[in-house]
């Protein structure tokens, strides 16, 4: 059954960020083109009940990759340990000076 102006349909609201009840505002080729949220009264394109993809900030992504690389080790370090494992020699282990001592809890008086 084709949609008509004013019909209630479910769609993702960009302002409410949820699937809410909407009213059909305009039609194109017997399909809803624009809808109005019955909760916040925001007009937007009909999204077929699908949320938009999340926005990825390139700066945050670059910082995340940098931190992840620092935690897991650099690419060169990973290649060295892979080569050492292939040759059968042990990878260089951390010396005691490089390890951090565990923090002690203060005694409560």
Looking at this protein, list some descriptive labels.
single chain, 109 residues, 26% helix
How would you concisely characterize the structure shown here?
The protein is α+β, with helices and mostly antiparallel strands. Helix content is 26%, strand content 25%.
How would you portray this structure in words?
The chain is an alpha+beta fold and 109 residues long. β2 (18-28) and β3 form a beta hairpin. The chain has helices spanning 58-72, 75-87; strands at residues 8-13, 18-28, 31-37, 43-45. The protein has a four-stranded antiparallel β-sheet with strand order 1-2-3-4, with no helix packed on it. The chain has two helices and four strands; from the N terminus they run ββββαα. The protein has a domain at 8-45. Helix content is 26%, strand content 25%.
Mean pLDDT: 77
| Uncertain residue segments | 76-85
Radius of gyration: 28 Å
What structural class should be given to the helix and strand makeup?
A: alpha+beta
Give the percentage of residues in beta strands. Answer: 15-25%
Question: What distance lies between the first and last C-alpha atoms, to the nearest angstrom?
Answer: 76 Å
Helix run count: 2
Question: What's the topology here?
Answer:
Layout: E1 8-13, E2 18-28, E3 31-37, E4 43-45, H1 58-72, H2 75-87
Antiparallel strand pairs: 1-2, 2-3, 3-4
